[in-house]
Amino acid sequence: MRKIIFLASAAAALPLHAQAPSIGQDLAATIALHGQTCDKIVDSKRNSDSDYTATCKDGNRYHVYVDSSGHVVVQKI
């Protein structure tokens, strides 16, 4: 009984409408994780599956894609 009460109270603490990060947030995080600078994504274009062009507020532009070996690549353009 104690487990059921705990699970119910834990579930009640979760937001009802938790949303996945936007593509802009994902791209910004990916760019940062690759050591590049991007203060905020202002435009992004999906070129194909797992292939994007991102434009940052500071003017930097990046090509973010997954290469044939499955690695994420971030190239400044």
Describe this structure in words.
With 77 residues, this protein is an alpha+beta fold. The protein has one domain. 30% of the residues lie in helices and 32% in strands. The chain has 2 helices and 4 strands; from the N terminus they run ααββββ. The chain has helices at 2-13, 23-33; strands spanning 41-48, 51-56, 61-66, 72-76. A 4-stranded antiparallel β-sheet has the order 1-2-3-4, covered by helices on one side. Strand 3 and strand 4 form a beta hairpin. The N and C termini lie far apart (58 Å). Residues 1-12 have low confidence and may be disordered.
Mind sketching the topology for me?
Layout (H helix, E strand, L loop, with lengths): L1 H12 L9 H11 L7 E8 L2 E6 L4 E6 L5 E5 L1
Antiparallel strand pairs: 1-2, 2-3, 3-4
Low-confidence stretches: 1-12
Compressed to H and E, one letter per element, the order equals: HHEEEE
**What is Rg?**
18 Å
Order of strands, widest sheet: 1-2-3-4
Q: Tell me the number of strands.
A: 4
Task: Give the count of helical stretches.
Answer: 2
Largest sheet: 4 strands, antiparallel
Helical content class: 25-40%
Integer tally of domains: 1
- Strand composition percent: 25-35%
* Tertiary shape: globular
> What is the terminal-to-terminal distance?
58 Å
